[in-house]
Amino acid sequence: MLDFDNGSHRAANRKDVVRVNEWGDVAGMTGDDLAPFKTVIVDTAGRALDTLTADIIRINPKHGRGGALTLQGYGELKSRFGSFLKMLNSFGKDVVLIAHMDEQRNSDDVVERLDVQGGSKGEIYKSADAMGRLVIVNGQRWLRFSPTDAAFGKNPGQLEPLEVPHFESPEFATFWPA
Q1: Which of 9, 75, 159, 165 fits 169 for a cystine, CB–CB 3.0-4.6 Å?
Q2: Domain boundaries, the chain
Q3: Can you say whether residue 109 is alpha, beta or left, with left for phi > 0 and alpha for psi between -120 and 50 degrees?
Q4: Cβ neighbours for 53, distance < 8 A, ≥ 6 positions apart
Q5: What contacts 25, CB < 8 A, 6 or more positions away?
Q6: Cα separation of 125 and 8, whole Å?
Q7: Backbone phi and psi for residue 39, each to the nearest 5 degrees, phi listed first
């Protein structure tokens, strides 16, 4: 897990964690660094983008103004984040991006969108093989992949909603193998 928001200590069943303080902590990763792992989890995509934003402005101050990216800076962010994801995939890794959800209002309707900045949201949608969201229905957690009018998702495999067992239950070991 690449922990960009320093919240891994709250996670149950966590494995190996790299706490990321600056983009340089992940920029130089190699396939050999990740050889023991099948999956790389980025927690969270939004904080990863914030960390990359700071690096872009540090390298070229013209790409930022008042701590925010300029139009050229957003282009750089989109390009570099896409390259980062492609690099992880080139190592043969499954990549899981965790993101917070942002509720937006459309009249009386609430619409769920990824809480990430700029054009990188589109890059996440394009590069993802599947996108799911964790929901709670009647006290039970479910992972849903199908998009709706009000919620994001990407479900090319036509996956049914998956019931997420409690992490202390015996079923969790087969849901999320160690």
Answers
A1: 165
A2: 2-128, 129-178
A3: beta
A4: 64, 69, 73, 77, 117
A5: 18
A6: 24
A7: -125, 140
Is 145:153 a contact under the CB 8 Å cutoff? yes
What residue type is 94 in one-letter code? D
Query: 99, exposed or middle or buried, with CB in 10 Å at 0-12, 13-18, 19+?
Result: buried
Longest dimension (CA), the chain: 54
Beta bridge mates, 112: 103
Q: Based on C-alpha coordinates, what's the Rg of the chain? A: 17
108-147 confidence digits (pLDDT tens): 888 888 888 766 777 788 888 888 888 899 999 999 999 8
Q: Which helix (H) or strand (E) holds 3?
A: strand 2-3
Instruction: Compute the C-alpha angle 107/111/117, nearest 5°.
Output: 115
| 177: Cα separation from own chain's centroid | 20
Structure tokens at 109: 């309707």
Residue where the block lists tokens 């050229």: 72
Tokens 């609430």 — which residue? 110
β-strand pairing of 68-69 with 64-65:
antiparallel
pTM: 0.85
The rounded distance, in Å, linking the Cα atoms of 118 and 107 is 23
